[in-house]
Structure formats: structure tokens, C-alpha cells
Design brief:
Bound molecules: FE2/S2 (inorganic) cluster
Order of helices and strands: EEHEEEHHHH
Shape: globular
CATH architecture of the largest domain: Roll
Number of strands: 5
Radius of gyration: 16 Å
Strand order of the largest sheet: 2-1-5-3-4
Number of helices: 5
Largest sheet: 5 strands, mixed
Number of domains: 2
CATH superfamily of the largest domain: Beta-grasp domain
Distance between the termini: 52 Å
């Protein structure tokens, strides 16, 4: 099968590679770029494990072809930590509140949370539950995830106040 040469800005860095027209974005990220933090679950848009940000918006990377992201910007879970490798506020809050068990859903949850807090710096419980409603977790019962996102919102608010 012929391939297309594409360039996607991934976690702030331009990544150029060949992709078959039918290669999904999640396969491109994991197999071509070796960014294996984003997980593959259902492969048909139901579980949210593959969630990444496309130009800042959360999307299912299993439902998009890599060639459709040519020229666009993608953020994966690897892009959340800062340049020193320190965890982001959202990652740290998940650790602090024990918001993961097996961790399979966690990369997608983190990206959904990141997108929410970018749009809404003080979300209610209902808004948090709505934001993660497309991400399935088989382990936690969701309450710790809600707690984590509330804690991250508080941390980010304190950081802004002290800036
Ligand atoms: S693997 Fe993409 S939504 Fe489940
Ligand atoms: S922590 Fe196991 S699926 Fe969410």
C-alpha cells in the first residue's frame, strides 16, 4: 500500500513520518513515534483509552486516520509533564487521590481532565462527570477521579494566584 508523508506537531515537536492512508492516529503515535502512553482499548470510539488532544480538543485517536492530523497539533499524555520531567498538576492530583488502579484508562482520563481544566478552571462535580463521561474506568468507581480533577483545579488556582 502506498504511504503519505505527513508532519504532525506532537507534544510541541514536529514529527515527520510516512503513514499508510488507513493507519489510525493511535497506531501512528504508538507504533511509528513510539509514544505508547496513550492506550488502545475498544478501537471503536467507546472507551476513551486512546484520548489525545487535537489542537487542544480531546478526540478519540482510534477514530481518526493519522493523515487527517497532517499539519495539526497533537498532545499525548507524554506531553503533560514539564521539561524537567515533573508531573503536571493533573497527573500529581491523580497520584495524590489514588485515582487509578490498573491505570489502563488513566492516560485518556488525564487528557479529558486537562481539556476540561483548560476550558473551565473551577468545574463542579457535575461538569467533571460530564467531561469524563466518555472515558470508561473498570476499577475506581470514578469518585477518586472526580476528586483528583477537583484537586488539580485547586492547585492550578493557587499557582495562578501566586504567579
Ligand atoms: S480505543 Fe479509542 S475509544 Fe476505545
Ligand atoms: S484504573 Fe483500571 S480502568 Fe481505570
Amino acid at each position: 500500500m502506498s504511504t503519505m508523508n505527513i508532519t504532525i506537531t506532537v507534544n510541541g515537536r514536529d514529527r515527520r513520518a510516512d503513514a499508510a492512508p488507513r493507519m489510525t492516529l493511535i497506531d501512528f503515535l504508538r507504533d511509528e513515534l513510539r509514544l505508547t502512553g496513550s492506550h488502545i482499548g475498544c478501537e471503536h470510539g467507546v472507551c476513551g483509552a486512546c484520548t489525545v488532544l487535537l489542537d487542544g480538543d480531546p478526540i478519540r485517536a482510534c477514530l481518526m486516520f493519522a493523515v487527517q492530523a497532517d499539519g495539526l497539533s497533537v498532545t499525548t499524555v507524554e506531553g503533560l509533564e514539564d521539561e524537567t520531567g515533573a508531573l503536571s498538576a493533573v497527573q500529581d492530583a491523580f497520584w495524590e487521590t489514588h485515582a487509578l488502579q490498573c491505570g489502563y484508562c488513566t492516560p485518556g482520563m488525564l487528557m479529558a481532565a486537562q481539556a476540561l481544566l483548560h476550558e473551565n478552571d473551577d468545574p463542579s462535580d457535575a461538569e467533571i462527570r460530564e467531561a469524563i463521561s466518555g472515558n470508561l474506568c473498570r476499577c475506581t468507581g470514578y469518585q477518586q477521579i472526580v476528586d483528583a480533577i477537583k484537586l488539580a483545579a485547586k492547585t492550578l488556582s493557587t499557582e495562578r494566584a501566586n504567579a
